[in-house]
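Reopening this ticket.

The earlier resolution said the output was attached, but the attachment link was broken on my side. Pasting everything inline this time so it's all in one place.
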Amino acid sequence: DVQSDTVVIEVLRGMTSEQICYLIEDMGLIEEALELNAYLIQNGYAEHLRVGKFSLYVGMTFDEIANQLTK
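Inline output:
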């Protein structure tokens, strides 16, 4: 059930992509924050990260996470 595995994270103004990735890791959504951060940078998402609350769930791909964080 996706709903039970959903976590809401809050991205605050001034947070770096690395800090956001560690927040996502701390919530148990990904294994390795630095891998996600590298993905965000290499694919051009890092500079488009938005401030706000985002619903993420266990099992999302890096691409799915990136798309949520840049909506």
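Reporter confirms the inline version is readable. The radius of gyration is 11 Å. Strands lie at 6-11, 52-57.
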